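Posting for a labmate who doesn't have an account.
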Amino acid sequence: MLEPVKKKRLYEEIMQQIRSLIIDGKFQPGDKLPSERDLATKLGVARSSVREALRALELLGYLESRQGEGTFIKNHSNADIVESMAFFILKEKDTLDDLFEVREILECEMACLAAERATGDDIEKLEEILAKATEFVTAGKIPLAEDSDFHNALAEASRNDILMRVMHTIADFIRKGREGSLTIPGRPHKSIKDHYEILQAVKEQDGNKAREAMRKHLKTVKKELFGEA
């Protein structure tokens, strides 16, 4: 059923194998998956790669994790809808310019929802991420993971399951733009400043302010990448 993984992006190949088994009916809704350890052994990969793949499949609606019981197959009809929507958005949109249009459509409203729905725990998580990112920038490092974590935490704070799944599905596309922008001299410092403005709007529960702060952030990043607004 499962084969050793050979591709560079291990978690993506693991996702594809498990997803195919679900779609082919070899795993049925309600079935319990083997443990992370067993899956890692069968696939010939580290448990961390298996964990990342399972988390992604859970976000996409294929799996559910039950405390103390394990990971189980869900009815994946909703997941198909989410993936279809996400890939429709990205169909033939493989340039950074198109990517920023998609991000503006999704992330501005995501920031607005986060401001309206964020809990104290959400805000604390955002603050911790920005504090860590600030340390990295001060030390002359590029906070690539922390930048991604901030946007992901905003998605979680939006409390919109579909939006979170779509954002996860297009994460690799977003990463391309992020890698390009954060290598621009001075951009990491500016991104930190932008993120603090977004966070402040979230703290104030001001959806419109959060939306516009995110829009400003994306537009300035795009301008520095392409030399235009």
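Reply:
Got it, the structure tokens are right above this. Residues 83-226 form a domain with the Four Helix Bundle (Hemerythrin (Met), subunit A) fold (CATH 1.20.120.530).
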